[in-house]
Amino acid sequence: MLAMQYQITLPADYDMGIIRERVATRGFALDQYPGLGLKAYLIREAGVNGSAVNQYAPFYLWNAPLAAGTFLWGGDGFGNIVRDFGRPVAQTWVGAGFARGPAGDEAPTVAVRSIIHLTDDADPQPLVASRVDALPALVGQPGLHSVAVAVDPRTWQLVEFSLWAVAPDAEWIEAAADSRDTETYEVLHLSSPGLARLARR
């Protein structure tokens, strides 16, 4: 599994209805994309849920890294992003764990992304193992669609990405934000052609 996200920060006065319309009319294009586990079409709006920015920030989980490459430089998908917004940095993480929650068959409406920064002298093994071992407890959370844990071995950041059919309560988000960089997003659409394969990893 390979996790990927690019974040396109837009002007403060940008009409986010443009992004909503873009996803409504084009989001289905990846609903059957080979090698894709899931793509969550995410936004943040300035002044909503504590966001200071307008942002379009899709998050991907790939079953096949080669498919991620094909998307980035072999077709129109990412090419349309480059054409319309310029070329964003596509951050990637190597997958460590994935699980589906009790709302795994429902449409997610909220996503939470938490990043833990490892110190320079930290051994990544115990931290990664602890987050993966915590997945069985996390999947019992009501409203949870799915959750993934992945690591960027270049910057040594661990990302925990969760999708929710019903927004988690404020206490859960506060706990997730403890000692981490945590962002909450609205999910406009979910393409999940390879979700079942992700769930077996």
UniProtKB/TrEMBL annotation:
Protein name: DUF4865 domain-containing protein
Origin species: Subtercola lobariae
Pfam family, one: DUF4865
